[in-house]
Amino acid sequence: MISKDMSILEVLQAYPRTQEVFARYGMACVSCMGATEETIEAAARMHGLDLDRLLADLNRQVLQMIGGSSRGRAR
């Protein structure tokens, strides 16, 4: 799962649909040059966001992705 110490780019590469969560929080992370090294924690702080809430939403998105893809394979 996603942790506060992961870089934004690492998260986006592993879980592309998390871009939707970042966008909801007003974070244009895909085009941000800091995405390669900036951690989720640093980005949340920079944007004045609640880190725990952001992580919960990112991980919820990942769980939906995993659940959706495993259901698709079962058919």
List the helices and strands and how they pair.
Elements: H1 8-14, H2 19-24, H3 40-47, H4 51-74
Q: Could you give a quick summary of the protein structure above?
A:
This protein is mostly helical and 75 residues long. It has helices at residues 8-14, 19-24, 40-47, 51-74.
List keywords for this structure.
75 residues, mainly alpha, SP0561-like, 4 helices, globular
Description:
With 75 residues, the chain is an all-alpha fold. It has a single domain (8-70), classed as Orthogonal Bundle (SP0561-like), CATH 1.10.3910. It is 60% helix and 0% strand. It has 4 helices and no strands. It has helices at 8-14, 19-24, 40-47, 51-74. The chain is globular. The termini are far apart.
Order of helices and strands: HHHH
Instruction: Tell me the Rg in angstroms.
Output: 13 Å
Largest sheet: none
* CATH topology heading: SP0561-like
- Mean pLDDT across the residues is 87
Overall, the morphology is globular
End-to-end CA span: 25 Å
Q: List unreliable stretches of 5+ residues.
A: 70-75
Enumerate how many helices there are, as a single number. 4
CATH superfamily: SP0561-like
